[in-house]
Amino acid sequence: LLLGCELTATTKSYTFQVDEEDNSDHILALSVVCLTDGAKDECNVVEVIGRNHENQEIAVPVANLKLSCQPLLSLDNFKLQPPVTFRLAAGSGPVHVAGWHRIMHREDASFEEDDDLSEEDEEELPPIMPAKK
Question: Where are the domains of the chain?
Fold first, then answer.
């Protein structure tokens, strides 16, 4: 699924979240952040606000865009786990954030190792011979 949002002086943040009761794994990958039509030649700082491994909120700047020197930044599918908030920390935009959302459904059955492999099923490797001089 494609994701896109626009951050402006009037809409400074956008939160992407999923249903907490959903039993799937969600990955949000950012591909590009760019200034769009009407942007001023000023620094536009975009932050991503999420949670760290200790479940504490953390804000990380991911882009600093300026029309005259860097109007676009490729984020090479920077992966995040929802919920995530995108915030225009400085500047008035408009800044477009684009990426994709992938849903991976969890299997209900648990993984069990198959210990019933016979020796015939196992591939035998030849022994390693010493190098000839």
Answer: 2-104
